[in-house]
C-alpha cells in the first residue's frame, strides 16, 4: 500500500487524529496510507501533502 507524506499546518497546533490513532504535532510530517491521506488532505486548513503530486 502506498504511503503519502502529509504535514500538520493547522492553526490550532497539535492535532489528535483518531483516524491515525496518534497526535500529530504542529509542523510534523507523517507518512500515512493513501486512503487516510485522501481524507486528511480534504481538510485543507489542517494538512498539506509533502513532496510528490496529487
In a few lines, what is going on in this structure?
Helix content is 15%, strand content 37%. The chain has 1 helix and 5 strands, in the order ββββαβ.
Features:
54 residues, 5 strands
What can you see in these coordinates?
The protein has 54 residues and is of the alpha+beta class. It has one helix spanning 34-41; strands at 3-8, 15-17, 22-24, 29-33, 47-49. A hairpin with a 4-residue loop joins strand 2 and strand 3. The longest helix is centred in the C-terminal third of the chain and has 8 residues, at 34-41. The protein is globular and about 30 Å long. The two termini are 16 Å apart. The model has no long low-confidence stretch (mean pLDDT 94).
Shape: globular
Mean pLDDT: 94
For the biggest β-sheet, the strand order reads 4-1-5
Give the topology string: H per helix, E per strand. EEEEHE
In total, how many beta strands?
5
Sheet with most strands: 3 strands, antiparallel
Derived structural class: alpha+beta
> What percent of residues are in strands?
35-45%
Whole-Å distance between the termini? 16 Å
User: What is the radius of gyration?
Assistant: 10 Å
- Name the helicity range: 10-25%
Count of DSSP H/I helices: 1
Return residue spans where pLDDT drops below 50 for at least 5 consecutive residues. none
Blueprint (SSEs and pairs):
Layout: E1 3-8, E2 15-17, E3 22-24, E4 29-33, H1 34-41, E5 47-49
Antiparallel strand pairs: 1-4, 1-5, 2-3
Amino acid at each position: 500500500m502506498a504511503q503519502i507524506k502529509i504535514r500538520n499546518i493547522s492553526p490550532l497546533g497539535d492535532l489528535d487524529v483518531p483516524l491515525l490513532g496518534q497526535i500529530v504535532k504542529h509542523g510534523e510530517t507523517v507518512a500515512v496510507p493513501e486512503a487516510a491521506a485522501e481524507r486528511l488532505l480534504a481538510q485543507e486548513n489542517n494538512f498539506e501533502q509533502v513532496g510528490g503530486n496529487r
